[in-house]
Structures are given as C-alpha cells and as structure tokens.
Amino acid sequence: MSLKLLIADDEYFIRQRIKKIIPWEKLNLTFAGEAENGQQVIDHLEKEPVDLLLLDIKMPQMNGIETARYIKEHFPSVHMLILSGYNDFEYARTAIRYG
Fold first, then answer.
1. Cα–Cα distance for residue pair 58/12, rounded to 1 Å
2. Which stretches of the chain are DSSP H helices?
3. What's the CA gap between 40 and 21, in Å, rounded?
4. 4-aspartylphosphate modification sites (predicted)?
5. Which fold does the domain 1-59 belong to in CATH?
6. What are the backbone dihedrals phi and psi of residue 32, each rounded to the nearest 5 degrees, phi first?
7. What is the pLDDT of residue 73?
8. Please, which pLDDT band fits residue 88 given cuts at 50, 70 and 90?
9. Residue 34's pLDDT band (boundaries 50, 70, 90)?
10. Best label site of 7, 37, 72, 95, fewest CB within 10 Å?
11. Domain ranges in the chain?
C-alpha cells in the first residue's frame, strides 16, 4: 500500500518542481494533492486523509507553523516534513516542536 503525500507551498512553481523530482513509485508514494496555504491543507485533510505532508513554513493566511500546530492536534496520524528557505533557526526549533 502506498503512502499518500500532500504538498503545501504558496509558490506554484515550487509545488510543480517538487512533484517532478520525487521518485513516486520508488518511494511507494501517491500524490494526494497540493495546497497553497494552511487553510487549504486543513480543508483537504477534512475531506481526504493523507499519510505525509510536505509543508512550507512561510505561506499566506495560515503559515506552516500554525498549520503544523493545528494538524498535530486534529490529525495526529499525519507525518510532516517542513521546508524552509530561511536561515533563522528559530523557525526550525518551533517546527520541531510540532512536527
């Protein structure tokens, strides 16, 4: 059984690039969808559960940290990988607490 992966990033081209570089079959992953903000992630999870979430830190409406906090509380079975292009380790420290 393959694991369902949801990609969340506010930048369309980043989402497309991630979809292209992941060796889906080799990793036994299924593309579950994409979201451009935290609210879209939550909306997706309420309709269709996923196993893995690739989550950007900086997104509009609801950032990655807020989204991770919500997911940990309401969807604890979802595993998260959090992405960031920022050098500030505080983002990473906070993300580790929630993911």
1. 14
2. 12-21, 38-47, 64-74, 89-98
3. 23
4. 56
5. Rossmann fold (3.40.50)
6. -95, -20
7. 96
8. low
9. very high
10. 72
11. 1-59
